[in-house]
Design the sequence.
């Protein structure tokens, strides 16, 4: 049987490593324990973006700007709004986005994702949501809030919007695939909420979904 680890090792032999600024940021993330999108998930994200070619993208979870820059480089004509709450990373992300030369196409909103989504819904944020809503959403924020994020995103998206949720199968003390009782007590809330999110959305006829083992698990949702 082909394992995910064996498959990823092979992929590393045929796909090129990151280059330029993204390679530098990858090294910085490794040295400073900053979570960024994993190689397998990057390949999927680039392929998907270049296939569906969305014009407007919303990202929840900027970190140091790695994935926002990756998306901007993959789609030179797309506009990107990205949200980050961790104050120490915001200036680093802004600097990296500027260094990449894509600051004219990326709007970084500072604050809690749930609060900012509410503001975007109410039209009170200093950013105008595209008239038809966002074409693509990349979610890599607080794992326990994915279901809430989707609820708040509904007025901001449209039929045909694709949402990619990263890191849906892994957490600090175990896997979403593990039993509730195999997870450390402090992480059971995140574990249970994520499992509930995945089950609810896959059963909802408003969406077409796919769950992949790429990276730490990618859940793709297409709005019908």
Sequence:
């Amino acid at each position: 049987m082909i394992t995910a680890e064996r498959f990823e090792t092979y992929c590393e032999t045929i796909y090129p490593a990151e280059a330029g600024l993204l390679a530098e940021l990858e090294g910085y993330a490794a040295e400073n324990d900053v979570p960024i999108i994993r190689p397998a998930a990057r390949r999927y994200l680039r392929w998907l973006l270049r296939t569906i070619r969305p014009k407007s993208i919303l990202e929840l979870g900027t970190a140091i700007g790695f994935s926002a820059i990756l998306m901007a480089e993959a789609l030179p004509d797309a506009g990107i709004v990205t949200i980050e709450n961790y104050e120490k990373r915001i200036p680093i992300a802004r600097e990296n986005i500027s260094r990449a030369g894509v600051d004219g196409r990326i709007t970084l909103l500072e604050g809690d994702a749930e609060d900012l989504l509410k503001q975007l819904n109410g039209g009170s944020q200093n950013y105008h949501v595209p008239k038809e809503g966002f074409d693509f959403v990349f979610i890599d924020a607080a794992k326990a809030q994915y279901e809430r994020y989707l609820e708040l995103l509904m007025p901001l998206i449209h039929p045909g919007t694709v949402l990619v949720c990263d890191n849906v199968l892994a957490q600090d003390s175990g896997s979403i695939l593990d039993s509730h009782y195999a997870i450390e007590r402090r992480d059971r809330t995140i574990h249970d909420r994520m499992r509930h999110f995945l089950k609810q959305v896959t059963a909802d006829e408003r969406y077409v979904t796919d769950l992949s083992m790429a990276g730490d698990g990618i859940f793709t949702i297409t709005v019908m």
The chain is about 40% helix and 20% strand. The chain has one domain: 4-223.
